[in-house]
Amino acid sequence: MAKIGIFFGTESGRTKLVARYIAKSLGDAASAPVDIGHATLADFLAHDALILGSPTHGGGQLPERSTSACPPSWQTFLAQLAGADLSGKVAAIYGVGDQKKYPGAFVDAIAVIQDTLLARGARVVGRWPTSGYDFSASQAVDDGHFLGLALDQENQPGLTGQRVESWLALVRPALLP
Fold first, then answer.
1. What is the pLDDT of residues 25-37, one digit of tens each?
2. Region at 175 (left for phi over 0; alpha for psi -120 to 50; beta for the rest)
3. DSSP for 10-77?
4. Across residues 96-124, what is the average pLDDT?
5. What are 57's strand-pairing partners?
6. What is the C-alpha separation between 142 and 118, in angstroms, rounded?
7. CB atoms within 10 A of CB 69
8. Each residue of 24-74: pLDDT tens digit?
9. Which tens digit of pLDDT belongs to each residue from 116-169?
10. Spatial distance between the Cα atoms of 173 and 160, rounded to a whole number of angstroms
11. H or E element: which one contains 150?
């Protein structure tokens, strides 16, 4: 059985902590989490099942780290997927955001990543209800559901474990058929 690849982008470290939690919860079914800034295209394409995580930066953009201390993040990596065929791959996406500080762009990164994956032929699973959150807008919402798991480590850290476990129960059958 192939392992689930877990890839994340992070600036504050919160998305990385969630990736580690997910990996621990999945146990032997998952590979060790990899910061997308350190991943190669070959690393990414080696997995047929993926869990991808990203924070949303400011007004709804993917973070783009460009200092020598921080490797590039999702924005740079997604550009590398331009010619990739992701047919046959299934992905679940989680986003970390701050619904109080950025209520008009809460977890928008989920939608940006999903759009790229779908355009390359991947199947995306893991829609999550919007109930229990307090935000005004998100590109990651469709028909009353987030396009992936939404987490707010700033304002709702006590809900993260339960949300992750419930979401993993939802996506596990699609990622490990």
1. 999 999 999 999 8
2. alpha
3. -SSSHHHHHHHHHHHHHGGGBPPPEEGGG--HHHHHT-SEEEEEEE-BTTTBPP---STTS---HHHH
4. 95
5. 61
6. 15
7. 5
8. 999 999 999 999 989 999 999 999 999 999 998 666 556 665 444 455 688
9. 999 999 999 999 999 999 999 999 999 999 999 999 999 999 999 999 999 999
10. 21
11. strand 149-151
DSSP symbol at 82? G
Cα angle: 45, vertex 163, 12; to 5 degrees: 65
Starting from the edge strand earliest in sequence, which strands make up the sheet with 145-146, in order? Answer: 128-129, 145-146, 141-142
Give the C-alpha separation, 172 to 177, whole Å: 8
**The architecture CATH gives domain 5-175:** 3-Layer(aba) Sandwich (3.40)
The CA-to-CA distance between both ends of the chain, in Å, stands at 10
Q: Is the whole-model pTM more than 0.90?
A: yes
